């Protein structure tokens, strides 16, 4: 498990390990610095079909991890996509990085900007934004974005019919403040939605739904 170091005497990322997905975890690596020009902050991980793991962070840099997934091996590419909060996945041989507009614990969420490539080294093609409402943008409104969330991850799910779907998960920052009394950060809500894809692999416009339903194999 990777996370960002936030202690006063720490920098970079930290890595914790556990024999079980549910923990308990033990932090084994501190101050893990990554090559490239991106800033230390929002990141996501991808394990490719051959078992190799890759780290992407706002900036943007893609770094191949070492065999133990505990640190960097080699910088694969650096490029500018705009936005922050990248999520990283692969579908039908195409790599996707979904980034969004700046949303540092914001209220109202962010956009979902789709970037696609046939190789981790690029070139990356920007499809556009599939997460904004079609109404005119209002900088003072919390209703500009469909999900009112900032992306956290996208993960594949195998269904009982043998298909693979991709579930987008985002943080609705500060939503816990609506509780009486206001709740702490871990009371913030998560927004789930199943991504739709067009025949050419581009991502369909995200449409709001009060619930997300999918079956699992």
**SS elements, strand count:** 14
Give me the secondary-structure category.
Answer: mainly beta
Spans of at least 5 consecutive residues with low confidence: none
- As a percent range, the share of helical residues equals under 10%
Shape: globular
Taking the sheet with the most strands, its summary is: 4 strands, antiparallel
Which value, in Å, is the CA radius of gyration? Answer: 18 Å
What does this structure look like?
The strands form four sheets. The chain has a four-stranded antiparallel β-sheet, with no helix packed on it. Strands 8-9-10-11 form a four-stranded antiparallel β-sheet, with no helix packed on it. With 217 residues, it is mainly beta. The two termini are 25 Å apart. The chain has strands at 2-4, 13-17, 26-32, 43-47, 53-57, 61-65, 72-78, 84-91, 94-100, 113-117, 125-129, 150-158, 164-172, 189-194. It is globular. A hairpin with a 5-residue loop joins strand 4 (43-47) and strand 5. It is built from no helices and 14 strands.
